[in-house]
Amino acid sequence: MYSFMGGGLFCAGVGNILLIVSTATDYWMQYRQSSNYMHQGLWRYCMPGKCFPHSDSIAHLDATRALMILSLLACFIGIIIGIMAFIHYSSFDRFDKTFAAGILFFISCFLVFLAMAVYTGVTINYYGKRYGNWRFSWSYIIGWVSVVLTFFSGIFYMCAYRMHECPRSTNSH
User: pTM score > 0.85 for this model?
Assistant: First the structure.
């Protein structure tokens, strides 16, 4: 049980760090315009030597930002509850912290997946038709890696929950 929770905490911790890096950096997409390479993130777009904030409220960027921030919060709260379950913090006896942490990690995974899907769909439909020389960059890839890590942290915590619950249910018969 503890090895599953330890693995889940490790995946969630790394996933949360990657979520922060992915959300904060400006390398979601790179493209070439007028013989200059430019890149953009969720908050700014950059030309050689200078970055500018996105001045317009672009719906897909707003949605991606909101979903990424909500995912960060869900993952962070899941980590806190996961640590409480790991050290047997007992302020909530009727509240199974292992199960709650697993659910929060799955919620975080789902929110990041939605954010990445929204960004991917709009970017491919918009930039794919207008620019020939563009690509997703490392911040975007880190976002997809965090989807996988938060998913596995949820799996690990659900396995720990099942291992913890199975002995209880067999003793009650």
Answer: yes
